[in-house]
Design a protein that fits this description.
The protein is an all-beta fold. Helix content is 3%, strand content 45%. It folds into four domains: 136 residues, Immunoglobulin-like, CATH 2.60.40; 187 residues, no CATH class; 193 residues, no CATH class; 171 residues. The radius of gyration is 36 Å and the shape is elongated.
Length: 942
C-alpha cells in the first residue's frame, strides 16, 4: 500500500539537519571534490606507524595467505627480543604480537636480525638472531602464540652444525604443509648454511653448507611445486632461491627439494657479474612470480637500481634493466622486489638527495617504488612514485652494518626497507622514519591504494565505486508536506579523518572486546586560532572505562591523538583515572639501552597543558589547543599520520627530566630519559592513519553523493549533505516540495568516490501531491457532546465543522498538542496511533463523505474520544487540526466569537483568526472537562 509523508515526519527531518553539513560550520564531513588522477596513477594510503612507541630498523613485511600483514624488526641483541606486528584490517592499523609492553612475541633469545614467512596452511615461521645463534619459532595461530615445542630456544638451530655457531643475517621461507627452510651466513669465514623442518618447526634437520658468500639477500621459495628432471626422471619439487653476492658478482643457490626426505640438490648460479661499479650495497634481492619466473634487483654504485629476469629458473638471465629513472639522481640504495603475475613486479628503495654518496650528512631521504607490467621484456616500462609523505631521514645511512658502530658512524636509521603484496596485488611497503624530535626510528608501512595491480586478473586497484542506500522516502510515498527529504547511507572513504572499525579493541590481540577503548573515529577541525581533536569511543561510561582498564591490567586509560608536522610529533591526550579526567600535550621522551634508543614515550608539558580546553560529552572526547602550541601551521600545511590510540596506562602521565646519560653526543635536546619500559602504556586500539591539511576546517569525505530527479543520466545532479557525526555514513538532501511539480517523480541516487566511476544508482518513486498538509485549526470549529463518565474514564463525541470558505481535503486529523490535569494522571485511551499524551491523533478521513473532502459548512461524523481519568478530575485537551489544502494556498480565515455551553454539548462560536501559509500554528482549540457539571466546553486560543 502507499505510504504518506506527514508533516510531523517532515518537521523531524528539519530538526535533523543540525546533524548534517550546514548545521554547524566546519563540524561535518563535507562532500569533497577530488582531482581525478591519471587512469593508472599509483597512489598509496596514508603512511601508518606499526608501533606508537617501540623504535627499530631493518623491517621486513610479509602478507600471509589470509591477507594479514606482518611486519618484523630486530630490537637489539641487548634486549634478547625482536618485534613482530600484525594488521588484521588491511594495513590500517597494527598491533604487536606477544606481550603488549615489551612487544615480545617469542620466548626465545634474539634481537639481532629477523625474518618471517608462512606455509600454505598459514603457519608463521619466525627467525631471530641472538648473540650466539639463530633461533626459529613457528606459530599455528597467526602469531598470537609460539608454542614451546615449536620454538627452538634451548638448542639453537645453528648449534646443530659445528662451526656455524657465530651467525649473521638469517632468512626463512615456508612452503606447503609444515615445510620450512632457514638460511644464514657464518660470520667467521662466510660459510652459508641451510636447515629444514618437515613438521612445522617441531624438529629441524642437521643442516648443510650451501657454499660461501660475502653477504646474502632473502631466501625465496616458489610457492608452487614445479616439475624438474632428476637423473632423467621428472619429479615434483620445491624450488628455493637464495641470492647472494661474492665480490663483484651476484649469484644464487638454487635448491631443489623433492619433498621426500632426501637431501636437497644445490646448484650455484651466476646472476650478474659487474665489471664496473659495486653491487654490494647491503643486499641483492630476488623474487618469484606466480609462474616461477625470477626477478633479481640490486643497487649499482649506490646510484641506480637494476633488475635482471630469468624465465628458466635461473639457468640464464636477461641483460640488466634500469629500474630507477635515469632522471632520478642522488644516493639510490637498498632495493627490494616483489613479483605477482608474469612480468608484473614492484621495487622499493631509499633515495638520498646527494648523488652516489649515502654517507653525506647533507642527505635528505625518501622512499620510492617503481612498478612494471612487462618486466620480462628487453626494455620494460616503469612507473615510479614517492611512497613516503615526507622526508624520512636526514644525514648519513651507513652501509657497513655493525662496523658502523665500531667506526662511530651514524647507524641510527639502520638499513633496508622491504616490499610484499596482498591478495589483490597491492604493494605493501615497510620502512623507517626518524624525522621526529627524538630521532627514534618509527617502523612505518604504506599500502598501495590505486594504480595497476601486480595480478592481471585484478587489473586496476582502487576502482571500486562503492554503493549508496536510499532509506527515505519509502517507495510510493505521497509527499504532502512543504519539504521533501531524501536520505540514506554512503560508502565514501574519509578524506582527512578516520572512521575506525567497531569491536576491534583488545588486550594482547585476543580475548573479549573492550567497548571503553574502542575508538570509532578520530578527526581534526579548526576553530579560529585553535585546533580541535575529536575522538569518539564506543562507550565512555565510567563502568566501560573501568572494565577496559581492569581487563588490560592498567590503572586507567589514555586516549591520545598524534600527528607528524614539520619533523615534529605533536599529540593531545585525555587521561581517565577513576572519576578524574586530565588533558595533556607535550613532547616525546625516550627509553634507551646503553647503546641505542628503544621506546619513544609521551612527555607531558604541564605548562602548555594548562592552555588546553578539554571536555567529554557523551562518547566524544574534544580537546582544543591553540595553534601556536602545535607549530603554528598555516593554511595548506599537511599533518601526516594523524592517528588515534586507546592505551592502557601502567601509571599516570608525569613529566620526565632532560637527563640523557646514555645519549650519543650531542644529545637531542628535546628528548628525555625514562628508564623503565614496564611503565609504558599498552595498546588496546588504534585508528587508521589520516592526513589533515590546515585550512580544511573539519572532516571531509572523499567524494560526493548525487541526487537526480527524473533523469537517470544525472545531467544536473544535486549534492547531498553528510552527517556531522564522523562515525556515521549518512547522507541527506532536503528541498522544498514545491521545487517539483505535483505528480509522480523518481529520484536517482549515486556516489562518486574521488577519481572513480560512479556507483550503480538506486532509485525511489514517489508522488508530490497537489495538496499540502496544513494546520487548519483556524478553519474549523469543534463540537464536543455526549460526555459520559464510566469506571475511571471520560468519553465524549468530537465533531469538526469547516467554518471557512475553503475546502479541506483528507487526510484530516485532530491531534492532541497538550493534555493537562492537576495530577498528570489523565491519559488518552483510544488514539489511532496509540499515543497517550501530546501527539495522540484521531483520524477523521472516514468521518467525511465519500468525496474525501470537508466542504465549507460541512460537519464530520462524530469520533468517540476516551480518556483515562481514575480520579474523575478536571482536565483540558488542546487540539491541533491538520488537513490538506491545495498546494500554494493559505489557510484563509475562520470565524469565532466566544463559547456557549448547553447541557452535555458544546460548540465553538464564530469569530476571526488565521494561520500562516507555511503551516505555523496560530491557534488551538481547547476542550475542558468539568466533573462537577459532567460537561465539556470548547474554546479557541489564539
Amino acid at each position: 500500500m502507499s505510504r504518506r509523508l506527514c508533516l510531523t515526519l517532515t518537521l523531524a527531518f528539519v530538526a535533523s539537519l543540525a546533524g548534517f553539513a550546514g548545521g554547524a560550520a566546519g563540524a561535518s564531513p563535507e562532500p569533497q571534490a577530488t582531482p581525478t588522477p591519471a587512469p593508472d596513477a599509483i597512489t598509496f594510503h596514508n603512511n601508518t606507524m606499526a608501533d606508537f612507541s617501540a623504535t627499530s630498523g631493518e623491517p621486513i613485511v610479509k602478507v600471509d595467505p589470509r591477507d594479514r600483514i606482518f611486519a618484523t624488526s630486530p630490537f637489539g641483541v641487548s634486549t634478547t627480543l625482536s618485534l613482530l606486528w600484525r594488521s588484521d584490517d588491511g594495513g590500517r592499523s597494527y598491533r604487536s604480537m606477544g606481550t603488549p609492553v615489551t612487544r615480545d612475541a617469542v620466548n626465545g633469545p634474539g634481537g639481532g636480525d629477523t625474518d618471517v614467512d608462512f606455509d600454505a596452511k598459514g603457519r608463521v615461521y619466525y627467525v631471530d638472531l641472538s648473540a650466539a645463534c639463530v633461533t626459529a619459532a613457528v606459530s599455528e595461530d597467526g602469531g598470537q602464540t609460539f608454542a614451546p615445542e615449536r620454538t627452538n630456544y634451548v638448542t639453537c638451530v645453528s648449534d646443530e652444525t659445528d662451526g656455524a655457531a657465530v651467525d649473521d643475517r638469517q632468512w626463512v621461507a615456508g612452503f606447503g604443509d609444515g615445510r620450512g627452510f632457514v638460511t644464514w651466513r657464518n660470520f667467521e669465514g662466510g660459510g652459508f648454511y641451510m636447515f629444514r623442518t618437515r613438521d612445522g618447526g617441531l624438529t629441524w634437520d642437521k643442516g648443510r653448507q650451501l657454499g660461501s658468500v660475502s653477504q646474502s639477500g632473502p631466501l625465496k621459495a616458489d610457492k608452487t611445486k614445479r616439475r624438474v628432471k632428476v637423473n632423467g626422471v621428472e619429479r615434483d619439487a620445491i624450488l628455493l632461491y637464495q641470492i647472494y653476492y661474492s665480490g663483484s658478482s651476484i649469484r644464487m643457490f638454487r635448491v631443489t627439494d623433492l619433498d621426500d626426505g632426501s637431501e636437497p640438490i644445490v646448484e650455484d648460479k651466476l646472476i650478474y657479474n659487474s665489471t664496473s661499479g659495486s653491487v654490494n650495497n647491503v643486499f641483492p634481492v630476488i623474487s618469484v612470480d606466480r609462474a616461477g619466473n625470477l626477478y633479481a634487483v640490486w643497487s649499482q654504485s649506490a646510484s641506480a637500481i637494476y633488475m635482471v629476469t630469468s624465465t628458466d629458473r635461473g639457468d640464464t638471465w636477461s641483460q640488466p634493466k634500469r629500474v630507477s629513472p635515469p632522471t632520478m639522481t642522488g644516493s639510490i640504495i637498498m632495493p627490494w622486489v616483489v613479483a605477482g603475475d608474469p612480468g608484473r613486479a614492484a621495487v622499493a628503495w631509499y633515495r638520498g638527495s646527494m648523488p652516489g654518496n649515502p654517507n653525506s650528512l647533507a642527505n635528505e631521504w625518501t622512499i620510492h617504488m617503481a612498478q612494471t607490467l612487462n618486466a620480462l621484456d628487453p626494455s620494460p616500462a616503469f612507473q615510479t612514485v614517492q611512497v613516503s609523505q615526507n622526508v624520512i631521514h636526514r644525514g648519513e645511512i651507513c652501509l657497513e652494518g655493525t662496523l658502523c658502530d665500531a667506526e662511530g658512524r651514524d647507524r641510527s636509521f639502520l638499513e633496508y626497507p622491504s616490499i610484499d603484496m596482498d591478495s589483490k596485488g597491492a604493494a605493501v611497503i615497510v620502512y623507517n622514519d626518524n624525522t621526529n624530535q627524538s630521532e627514534g626510528p618509527y617502523v612505518m608501512l604504506a599500502k598501495q591504494a590505486t594504480g595497476p595491480s601486480l595480478l592481471a586478473s585484478v587489473g586496476r586497484l582502487g576502482t571500486e565505486p562503492g554503493a549508496v542506500t536510499l532509506s527515505a522516502p519509502s517507495p510510493g510515498t505521497l509527499v504532502n508536506g512543504d519539504l521533501l527529504t531524501l536520505e540514506g547511507t554512503h560508502t565514501l572513504p574519509p578524506k582527512n579523518f578516520d572512521r575506525d572499525e567497531a569491536n576491534d579493541a583488545f588486550y594482547q590481540s585476543a580475548g573479549a572486546g573492550l567497548p571503553g577503548a574502542d575508538l570509532r573515529s578520530v578527526a581534526l577541525r579548526e576553530q579560529g586560532d585553535s585546533l580541535v581533536v575529536e575522538m569518539q569511543v564506543a562507550d565512555l561510561s565510567s563502568s566501560a572505562i573501568t572494565s577496559a582498564a581492569s581487563a588490560s591490567q592498567g590503572t586507567g586509560l589514555l586516549y591520545l591523538t598524534q600527528w607528524d608536522y614539520a619533523d615534529t610529533i605533536y599529540w593531545l591526550a585525555a587521561e581517565m583515572n577513576g572519576a578524574q579526567t586530565s588533558f595533556y600535550t607535550g613532547t616525546l621522551g625516550m627509553i634507551r639501552s646503553a647503546t641505542s634508543k628503544k621506546f619513544i614515550t609521551y612527555n607531558p608539558d604541564l605548562s602548555k597543558s594548562q592552555s588546553l580546553k578539554g571536555q567529554v560529552q557523551g562518547n566524544t572526547i574534544s580537546i582544543t589547543v591553540p595553534k601556536v602550541l602545535v607549530g603554528s601551521p598555516v593554511n595548506g600545511a599537511p599533518f601526516h599520520t594523524v592517528t588515534g590510540y586507546a592505551l592502557s596506562e601502567r601509571a599516570p602521565l608525569l613529566p620526565i627530566g632532560a637527563d640523557l646519560p646514555n645519549a650519543p653526543a650531542p644529545a637531542p635536546k628535546t628528548t628525555s630519559l625514562l628508564g623503565d619500559p614496564t611503565s609504558l602504556p599498552a595498546l588496546l586500539d588504534a585508528s587508521g592513519a589520516a592526513t589533515y591539511t590546515a585550512g580544511d576546517g573539519g572532516p571531509l569525505s572523499d567524494g560526493v553523493v548525487e541526487v537526480s530527479f527524473d533523469d537517470p543520466g544525472f545531467a544536473s545532479p544535486r549534492a547531498a549533505a553528510f552527517s556531522s557525526d564522523p562515525t556515521s555514513s549518512r547522507w541527506q538532501l532536503q528541498l522544498s516540495a514545491g521545487d517539483l511539480a505535483p505528480g509522480p517523480h523518481t529520484a536517482y541516487v549515486r556516489q562518486r568516490i574521488g577519481g572513480r566511476a560512479a556507483s550503480v544508482p538506486v532509485s525511489v518513486a514517489f508522488t508530490v501531491s497537489d495538496k499540502v498538509e496544513r494546520d487548519v485549526t483556524s478553519l474549523v470549529t469543534l463540537d464536543a457532546r455526549n460526555t459520559s463518565v464510566l469506571a475511571g474514564s471520560v468519553s465524549y463525541d468530537l465533531l469538526l465543522r469547516n467554518a471557512s470558505a475553503q475546502t479541506v481535503y483528507t487526510p484530516l486529523a485532530a491531534r492532541v498538542s497538550k493534555l493537562t490535569s492537576a495530577s498528570n494522571g489523565v491519559t488518552v485511551a483510544n488514539a489511532d496511533n496509540g499515543q497517550a499524551g501530546a501527539g495522540a491523533s484521531f483520524d477523521y478521513g472516514g468521518a467525511v463523505g465519500g468525496d474525501a473532502t470537508l466542504a465549507p459548512n460541512e460537519t464530520t461524523a462524530a469520533r468517540r474520544l476516551r480518556f483515562n481519568n481514575p480520579s474523575n478530575e478536571p482536565f483540558t485537551v488542546e487540539f491541533q487540526i491538520v488537513g490538506q489544502l491545495p498546494r500554494g494556498s493559505s489557510a484563509g480565515g475562520a470565524t469565532t466569537s466566544g463559547t456557549s455551553t448547553s447541557g452535555g454539548s458544546n460548540s465553538a462560536g464564530t469569530g476571526s483568526t488565521s494561520t500562516s501559509a507555511n503551516g505555523l500554528v496560530t491557534s488551538v482549540l481547547r476542550v475542558t472537562y468539568n466533573p462537577l457539571l459532567g460537561t465539556t466546553t470548547v474554546e479557541r486560543l489564539k
